[in-house]
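Researcher: Please translate sequence to structure tokens.
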Amino acid sequence: MKPFPGKPDPAPQVPKKASLLHVVRIVVSMLFMVGRNRDYGPDAPAIGPAQLIVVAVIGAALVIAGLVALATLITR
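Model: Translation complete:
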């Protein structure tokens, strides 16, 4: 049953695709276990598993490279 017989049902909203910056912000917020409600709410952009995995692997590689560089700098 429609809520208002004279008005058509609203079209279902398709979530927009997340940008690279948004995916990076989500991965960093997951790393530090902080997040905003708008990142996970019903109107949040859709993040594909491939985007999430690629950004997480690149982020992990950068963190490891930074730790290795810091360790070599300290030991010299």
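Researcher: Any highlights?
Model: The CA atoms of residues 27 and 59 lie 8 Å apart.
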